[in-house]
Amino acid sequence: MEQLIKQLDQYRKDIEAYMTATAETAEEFRIKYLGTKGIVKSVMGEMKNVAPEERKHFGQILNEFKQTVEEKYHQLKESSAEKTETAGAAFDYSLPADNFLTGSRHPLSIVRSRIISIFSRLGFAVAEGPEIEDDWHNFGSMNLPEDHPARDMQDTFYINNSKEEGIWLLRTHTSNVQARVMEKQKPPIRVICPGRVYRNETVSARAHCFFHQVEGLCVDTNISFADLKHTLYFFVKEMFGSDVKIRFRPSYFPFTEPSAEMDISCLICEGDGCAVCKHTGWVEILGSGMVHPKVLENFDIDPNKYTGFAFGMGMERICQLLYRVNDLRLYSQNDIRFLQQFTGSV
Ligand code: PHE
To answer: Relative to the CA of 215, which ligand 1 atom is closest?
Structure first.
């Protein structure tokens, strides 16, 4: 017992000798005195050898000792932290600053504004509408009555699909905006409708459950297929350059008659054949046609007086051809390594 008390005195002296510390010596101190195999633990272990009548007194001495050690440890830690802070004074102010990353526009935004700018030169205004839509504006008014087989052309996400509560869905195309424009405005109409659309497709490099479209609508007196062709020729030449070849193929859409799809010569392989053009040298970029008389009638526009053309294209496809982006998923993954590549204005 006496020997132990002497030993504790010695420890106290040793402890007092510690004045300031670095982070490492503070840690060494902690391990030596407070660690699982440290001095405090081992002197506490001596309790069992102490006679029962002395235990209380001895316990007090040990507790005080432990407190002294802990206080010293905190002191050392603080002094080591202060040292690290003052080490900051050696900071070299002449070093060049870290660069801030400059932001860049999303490739789809770049393409969107280019498309808008081209069509605005032909007198088209931009119209927008809701992404959550009712059945009439997305399908019914576009000459796709219920049970029309063409509804299967677009796999729809339904939000509510009951006759009593109404049918609500995520728009499958931006034709709903054309519908909303014709509802409010009478000819002459010249609008383009850029926006996000949704289709229930399995996500892969070539298909996504959402993508972006720009649809266009022009309704006036004496609008013919020649106007449609001229407008789209102008668009393609402005967008891709005057060397690009264009062709129309007959097609079917319930809301246009006649209908045509438009291909351009493949910009990736320039006609030699590649995976993007499926070795045909041509890439489809849009659907188009003369607005079906029934669609005009649905909005009280007299088809004997007015005619119109409409078209719709996918922005991701335009982007793919311009920037050679071959995986649709890249557009929405927010990977900075992808996004940083589009810093320049195009
Ligand atoms: N709405 C069609 C689609 O989403 C595109 C289109 C618009 C076709 C206008 C013809 C006329 O596929």
So the answer is: 7
